[in-house]
Amino acid sequence: MTTERIVNGLSCGEVLERLGDYIDGELKAEDREAVEGHLRGCRVCERFGGRIGSVVKDLREALHESEPLSEPLMKQLSTRLDGTDG
Hints:
Number of strands: 2
Largest sheet: 2 strands, antiparallel
Distance between the termini: 56 Å
Number of helices: 4
Oligomer: single chain
Strand content: under 5%
Structural class: mainly alpha
Strand order of the largest sheet: 1-2
Helix content: 55-70%
Radius of gyration: 19 Å
């Protein structure tokens, strides 16, 4: 059984909750520093955070490299999202 650690004033769960905002650069400086301090002191979170960060980076790159949707497909998607037929 793995126990949750508190490192740099944050538990592993608190870091997990903030990880998305951390990766997106949306944390205040104080919160970012607390997360970074936890990641430096907790190997489990450091590895997990690194993996998640890598996946997010790869997904963002793939989205930028993808082909734009065709006009007919855009219209079809728009119609379905609007909940109308026709």
